[in-house]
Structure formats: C-alpha cells, structure tokens
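Bump. Still looking for Interleukin 34 structure tokens.
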Amino acid sequence: MVQPSLCFLGGLLGLFLMAPIVVASTPASMCTPLKTLNDSLSHRRRYMKHNFPINYSIRVHHEEIFKLSNISKMKLKVEGLDELVLQRLWFQVNQGVLKKIIRVLPERHPSRPYTAELERRFRDAEGVFVHSHPAEVFQQELPETIQDIWDQLTEEPDRVPESSWRFASPKSLVDNLCHTMYCLFWECFSSTEASQDYCEVSHSKKGRKTLNQKVEMEPTEPTEW
Ligand SMILES: *[C@@H]1O[C@H](CO)[C@@H](O)[C@H](O)[C@H]1NC(C)=O
Ligand SMILES: *[C@@H]1O[C@H](CO)[C@@H](O)[C@H](O)[C@H]1NC(C)=O
Ligand SMILES: *[C@@H]1O[C@H](CO)[C@@H](O)[C@H](O)[C@H]1NC(C)=O
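Sorry for the wait, here they are.
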C-alpha cells in the first residue's frame, strides 16, 4: 500500500533533482563576460566584412563551420546531449576560428585591434566558464560523435586531408559564433526564458535553405557579402 506512493514521491523527487541540472546549464557568472563579448560582436559587420576584400575567405576545418543547424543535428543524433558539452565545443571551435582570423591580419590592418579585443573578451568568457564548473566536468568523457569532432579540430594541420578543409568568410564565421552563442547561452540573452527562439534556424534563413546548402560547398558565401 505504501510502496506505490513512495515510488511516486521518489519519482517526483527525482524530477526535482533533475530539473535544475537541465534548466540552469549556464551559471549566472557567465552572463557578464558574454554580454561584453556581445557588445563587441555588434560591430562585426564593419570589422569582419567592410575591411576585407570582396569575397575574402579563409581556410578552416569543416568542423569550424559550427552553425545553429549543427546544434539541432547533434541534439537529434546524441540522445540526452548535455548543453554543457555543446558549450565546451563552442569554446573549442571558436577559439580556433578567432586565431585563424587574427593570423591572416597584418599588424596594421584596420580590423586587427578589433579582432584582438574580440579574442580577449572571448578568452575572458572562457576563463569564467572553466572556473564556474567543477574540474571533473571537463574530464568527463564526451559522447562519441562529439569526441570525433573534437579530435578533428585538434588534429595537426598537416595531417588533415585536403578534402576536409573549407573556405569561409570571416564575417560568416563570426556570425556563426554569435548565433550559436545566443542559442547555447540563451539564459544570458533571453528575457522570455525560451531557448527555442535563439536555437531555431530563423525563417528568413529557412527560405534561403537550398541556396545556403549550395553555398556551403563553395569557397565563399556570397549571400553574406
Ligand atoms: C547583444 O547585442 C545585440 C546587438 O548586436 C543587442 O541587440 C542585444 O540586446 C545584446 N544582448 C544583450 C543581452 O546584451
Ligand atoms: C564574389 O563571388 C561571387 C559568387 O561566387 C561572384 O559572382 C563575384 O563575381 C565575386 N566578386 C568578386 C569581386 O570577386
Ligand atoms: C556543421 O555542418 C556542416 C555541414 O553539414 C559540416 O561540414 C560541419 O562539419 C558541421 N560542424 C560541426 C562542428 O559538426
């Protein structure tokens, strides 16, 4: 007689225990550095596009093209994928992206100070991210799909096959950084408590989907220029 209700209580308790983990994946301390980063990102059109030659693109790992659509694909593929794992991946990917953009900028390029500041703010956010989680979190084994991506990203460049490289404009890469940041750290950017809005590939983009897919295969993304 007692057991079923105990089970029920246990179930409820389980739900309560689980809920905070699922909902609050972003510590509040992350929001200050991310908003600072967001302030810089608002000038990206000028510094990542106008200051570059038309159709300028840089060579990146194909895994460094990390968009909203990748996030939804990964969530579908890996059951119960922890948001924290995606956040770690976001830092790993974009650290490489920013480094690559800086590397192509000559010392006196007008976008250099901006990009250096962007990278500094990004690293500040990463520092807070690392410190706001227990160290064990970063030693946890990653789901296989994610580990594979991680391994590719950290592979020695000369061991990466030619076919694995892509070309992308600095602006499109930084756009990806920005859009995926809103999705993965939505608690810092949403006033409505809904991550869905930020994680959804926007309607205007859906309309251009076939074009985008075609463009992805090409060296540059003319729609972004
Ligand atoms: C992030 O930056 C955009 C402008 O690029 C701004 O509209 C938005 O309010 C900012 N969000 C936060 C939470 O600061
Ligand atoms: C930029 O790329 C588009 C599409 O590939 C091409 O039509 C255009 O001529 C290019 N512009 C320049 C200046 O190279
Ligand atoms: C995102 O998707 C594109 C195209 O499907 C793919 O080339 C890229 O490797 C994916 N990025 C990640 C981080 O998985």
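The radius of gyration is 20 Å.

Edit: fixed formatting.
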